[in-house]
Amino acid sequence: MKFELRTRQVCLFLIAFIPINKMFILPSVLAKISNADMWISCLISLSLDLLTIALVTFTCRQSKTDFFNLVENTFGKVGSKLILSVFFVYFMLKAIIPINEQKEYVELTLYTLKPSIFYFLPFFPVVFYLCIKPLRVIGRASDVLWICTLIGYFVLLFLSVTNADFSAILPVGVNGANKIVSASFKGFNWFGDGAYLLFFIGEFCYKKHDGIKIVASYLLSALIILSFMIIFYCIFTSIAHRQRFAFTEISKYTTVINNLGRFDYIGIVLLIFSNTFSISLPLYFACRILNRIFNVKKKWITALCVVGVQALILLTLNRFYLTIENLAKGGFAIFFFIVGNVLPAFSPLLTLKKEKNYENA
Amino acid sequence: MKTLKAKIIMILVAFLFIFFFSNDFGLIDVEKTSIITAIAIDKTDDGDFEVTAQIAVPEATDANTENQKAQLSGKGSTVGAALKDLGDTSGWFPKLAFCNLILIGSSLSQTNVITAIDYFAKTLRVQDSALVAFSQKSAKELLEISTPLDNLSAFALQKILLKSTGFDRDIISTDVKSFCADYYSIANSSYMPLIKILDSGGSSESSGQGSSSGGASDTSGQSGGQSSQSSGQKNKENLFDARSTALFVEGVKVGELGDNETLALNAILSNINGTSLSVDEVPDKNGKPTNYLLTVLKNKRKTKLTATNNSLDLYIDLSLYCKVADHSSSNSDEAISQNHPLSQPLIEKTENMLIEYLENMMQISRRTGCDFLKIKEKLYRYNYKQYSLYKDNFLSKVKTHINVSVFGQS
Question: Which of A201, A255, B38, B127 could crosslink B154 through cysteines, CB 3.0-4.6 Å?
Answer without folding.
Answer: B38
